[in-house]
Design goal:
By secondary structure, the chain is mostly helical. It is built from 7 helices and 2 strands; from the N terminus they run H-H-H-H-E-E-H-H-H. It has one domain. The radius of gyration is 19 Å and the shape is elongated.
C-alpha cells in the first residue's frame, strides 16, 4: 500500500511526460519573466518576479487542470462525469485579475498602474497558453506585449503621462 501511494506521487501526470511538463513550466517562467523584466527596468510596481510567478502559477494550474480532466475523462463513461476545461480558464483569470487590480492606484484625479496590471494579467494568460502546450502562440503574444510596451514608452512624451 505504501508503495502504491509513493508511486502515485512519482507519476501523477499520466497524460504528459515529465520533460513536456518541465518545458511548459520553464517556457511560462521565461516568457512571463521577459514581460516582468520590461516592467522592472522602468521601476514599475510589479516587476520580474511578480510576472514570472504569475505566469508559472497559471501554467501549473492549467497543467493540473488538464491532468484532472484526463483522469475524469477515463471515469466519465462509468460515472457520468463531465470535465469542463473552461472552468479552469475562468478560475485562473479571476485570480489573475484580482492580483492585477491590486497594482492600480486611483488618486488626485489620476489612475496609475493600469499598464502594469494589464501586463500582469497577460503574463498569467501566457502562462496558461504555455500550460496548454501552445508555445508558438505564447511566444508570439510575449513578443507582441513587449513591442506594445516599448512603443507606448516611446510615445509617452506625446501623451504626457505614463503608467
Amino acid at each position: 500500500m505504501a508503495t502504491d501511494l509513493f508511486n502515485d506521487f512519482l507519476h501523477p501526470f499520466d497524460a504528459l511526460p515529465f520533460s513536456v511538463l518541465s518545458l511548459r513550466l520553464i517556457a511560462a517562467m521565461v516568457l512571463g519573466g521577459a514581460i516582468g523584466w520590461e516592467r522592472e527596468m522602468h521601476q514599475k510596481s510589479a516587476g520580474f518576479r511578480t510576472h514570472l510567478l504569475m505566469a508559472l502559477a497559471a501554467c501549473l494550474v492549467t497543467l493540473l487542470g488538464f491532468d484532472i480532466i484526463a483522469g475524469a475523462t477515463q471515469q466519465a463513461a462509468a460515472d457520468g462525469l463531465r470535465a469542463d476545461p473552461l472552468r479552469i480558464i475562468n478560475a485562473v483569470t479571476a485570480g489573475l485579475g484580482f492580483l492585477a487590480a491590486g497594482v492600480i492606484i486611483h488618486g488626485s484625479g489620476t489612475v496609475h498602474g493600469l499598464t502594469t496590471g494589464a501586463s500582469m494579467w497577460l503574463s498569467g494568460a501566457i502562462g496558461m497558453v504555455c500550460g496548454a502546450g501552445r508555445l508558438p502562440l505564447a511566444i508570439l503574444a510575449t513578443v507582441m506585449v513587449l513591442i506594445v510596451l516599448w512603443l507606448l514608452r516611446k510615445t509617452e512624451h506625446l501623451r504626457g503621462n505614463g503608467n
